[in-house]
Amino acid sequence: MSWQAPRLTPSQIADYRRDGFVIIPGLMRRDEIAPLMETYEADPLLDGAMGAVADSSGNAQNVVLWTQPGDDYIGQLPGLARFMDAAETLLGQPVYHWHSKIVPKPPGSAGRWDWHQDYGYWYYEGCLLPEMLTVTVSLDGMARDNGAMEVIRGSHRYGRIDVKTLDQASGTDPDRLALVMERCERVVLEIQPGDGIVFDGLTLHASGPNRSQRGRTLLHLSYNTVANAPVGAGADENHAYKPLAKVPDEALLAHRWGKVFNPGRFNKRTPGTKVHAASPVGFTSVAPAPTVRVTQ
Ligand SMILES: O=C(O)CCC(=O)C(=O)O
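Above: inputs. Below: predicted complex with 2-oxoglutaric acid.
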């Protein structure tokens, strides 16, 4: 196999440091993504594991989360060398898997992610330093009309901003957010299937409803530095340091996995509970938005 998975270039590293995010075209191949999308399209609730959190208007935003690596396709994703290498290059230290998510927006779904910094929540989960980031891959392409992710360029430099209750959900303190937005550019991340983004745990981000007839499905793989494993009252077992073995980049194409996901693969969520139990303000779990089979 002659294909080489991309590695960060010096100019991409410089972009990340300046902007708090960087786009990496072609981070996954479409034939690598295909088994996952075929499984999702055949069963958008992923054998009942798909959950949702309420946005500030109470709309369901679908999400499924996992923390444990494993020998299934989903379990191998966080360890893929290209993702871990990007995280270790940008954080400058060994990393471990914090958690990963699939975040679908079915066609016509209203759910949004209100503006937030991921570290706004991870702070309450016992991570003393904001040395955390997320590698995101678009599985089916995103644009303004299908709920593309948006970021605020350079917002990572403003440090941790308080999380506040926003009607039925939570998000970044709106007064502080407005001041940052006056000073920084808001960027809609319009990318193709397989393109990736890496963004800092302090980068403000959000996404809107899917007003299109196309799905919008993102894979988010979040990493923490080993030295920053959670401590104190907020620390929970799911996010504790566990070694993460690197998986060769060719593992997906070489079909070195059995099933797309094994039984019990995803973490459980109970509708009506706060997802971030340790945070004074969290996300409330609700029933998922109706899902439709996506045909494109
Ligand atoms: O998938 C998205 O649009 C954003 C997801 C997000 O911000 C999160 O999971 O924290």
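The mean pLDDT is 93.
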